[in-house]
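Renewal narrative, Specific Aim 1. Our central claim is that a sequence can be written position by position from structural information alone. The example that follows is taken directly from our test logs and has not been curated for this report. It begins with the C-alpha cells describing the chain, in the order in which they were read.
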C-alpha cells in the first residue's frame, strides 16, 4: 500500500488565504478548513496525497489545495474547475483569489426563483384545469391593455434601464397586448406569466421588484379567472 504524502497547507499559507478571504470573499467566519485524501498524477504515476480543503459552509462551495493542483467550485467557466500548478504556491494563491471573487458574486446574487415562488396566484390560474380558454371580448381586450400599461409603469418606476432594455420592455408589453387578441384566456395567462418571468431575469430585477411585478399582475388580472380566493390560499 502506497504511503500518503502530506500536502496540506502550512500555517503561513493558511494565513495568506485568510487575508485573501478578508479582501475578496464573504466573511471569514463562514469558512471551514478540512483535510482529505486524493490521488494526483506526478512523473507519469498516480500518488495519494493528504490535502487541505477550504469550504464556504453556508453554500458548500469549496477550494481544494492539492499537491500539484487547485480545484474550485464554483469556477470561472464551469461549476467545478481544475487548475494544475505543479508546486507554484503563487499560482495556487491566485487561483484561490479568483475563486473567492466568483464565490462572493454567487453568494450575493439574489434568488429570483425563491422570490417569485411566493406569488402563486398567476401561475396556478394559468395551469388550472377548470379555467376555460375562451377568447377575450373586445371590451376585455381593452381592459387588458389598460392593466398592461399600469404594470409596465410599475416595472419602469424607480428603474434605470438603458435604451436597449427600455426597448425590450416596450416590445414585450406590445406583444402581450397583441397576443390578447389571438389567444384564449388560459393560454394568454401562460404567455403573460412567461413574459413577466423572462423580464425579471433579463432585466436582473431585484427579488423585491420581481415579486412585486408578479403580485401586481395577479391582482390586475384576477378578474380573468374569477374566484380569486381559490388561487390565493
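The sequence written for that structure reads:
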Amino acid at each position: 500500500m502506497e504511503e500518503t504524502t502530506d500536502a496540506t497547507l502550512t500555517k503561513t499559507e493558511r494565513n495568506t488565504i485568510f487575508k485573501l478571504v478578508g479582501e475578496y470573499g464573504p466573511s471569514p467566519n463562514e469558512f471551514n478548513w478540512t483535510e482529505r485524501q486524493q490521488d494526483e498524477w506526478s512523473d507519469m504515476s498516480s500518488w495519494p496525497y493528504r490535502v487541505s480543503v477550504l469550504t464556504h459552509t453556508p453554500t458548500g462551495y469549496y477550494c481544494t489545495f492539492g499537491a500539484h493542483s487547485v480545484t474550485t467550485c464554483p469556477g470561472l467557466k464551469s461549476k467545478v474547475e481544475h487548475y494544475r500548478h505543479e508546486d507554484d504556491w503563487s499560482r495556487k494563491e491566485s487561483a484561490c483569489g479568483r475563486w473567492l471573487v466568483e464565490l462572493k458574486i454567487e453568494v450575493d446574487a439574489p434568488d429570483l426563483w425563491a422570490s417569485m415562488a411566493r406569488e402563486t396566484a398567476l401561475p396556478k390560474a394559468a395551469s388550472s384545469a377548470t379555467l376555460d380558454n375562451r377568447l377575450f371580448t373586445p371590451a376585455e381586450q381593452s381592459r387588458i391593455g389598460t392593466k398592461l400599461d399600469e404594470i409596465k409603469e410599475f416595472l419602469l418606476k424607480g428603474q434605470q434601464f438603458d435604451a436597449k432594455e427600455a426597448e425590450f420592455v416596450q416590445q414585450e408589453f406590445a406583444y402581450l397586448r397583441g397576443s390578447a387578441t389571438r389567444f384564449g384566456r388560459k393560454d394568454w395567462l401562460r404567455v403573460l406569466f412567461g413574459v413577466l418571468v423572462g423580464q425579471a431575469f433579463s432585466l436582473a430585477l431585484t427579488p423585491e421588484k420581481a415579486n412585486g411585478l408578479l403580485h401586481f399582475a395577479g391582482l390586475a388580472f384576477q378578474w380573468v379567472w374569477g374566484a380569486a380566493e381559490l388561487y390565493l390560499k
